[in-house]
Amino acid sequence: MSKIDRYMVNVEWTSMFPNSAAEFLHLDVSDHSHVLVLWHASGRKIWPFRFNNAWSLYPFFKDVLMSVWNQHAPGDLVTAISSKLKILKLKLKGWSKLHFSNFHERVAAARIDLHDFQEKL
User: Fold this and answer.
1) Is 81:72 a contact under the CB 8 Å cutoff?
2) Cα→Cα distances 72→78, 85, 87, 91, Å
3) Which helix (H) or strand (E) element contains residue 10?
4) In terms of domain of life, where is this protein from (predicted)?
């Protein structure tokens, strides 16, 4: 059975309820699902993991990658690769927060340092 159900909102709805969400409930006898509209959905949105190609240019990226990839993972080849990728995702999330967070503040501080250095010349 394929899922054909949709929900739509307009601009006024999204303005009034910016944190709203919709959840399709389980199918019963019909091929249509009930939609539960959460107009006060709260909580932090979970963002999907996205690899940033610039990370591979950073000096210690390969160390993080190799530390995970050289670990033994039990199971067949597909299971081992899948578990290593999950571990790598967690490691890279922490690593990127450490090295790439507060990017705008770091750029502003670097500009101030550059300006100060140029003043000394």
Assistant:
1) no
2) 13, 13, 12, 16
3) none
4) Eukaryota
pLDDT band at 31 (very low <50, low <70, confident <90, very high): low
Between 82 and 40, residue with greater pLDDT: 82
Bridge partners (DSSP) of residue 119 are none
CA distance 103 to 51: 17
The range of the structural domain enclosing residue 96 comes to 53-120
Residues 99 and 68 in one domain: yes
Same domain? For 75 and 103 the reply is yes
Whether 66 and 112 share a structural domain: yes
- The span from the CA of 120 to the CA of 58, in Å, is 30
Q: What is the pTM of this model?
A: 0.50
Give the mean model confidence (pLDDT) for residues 97-103: 81
Q: Tell me the C-alpha distance between 59 and 55, whole Å.
A: 9
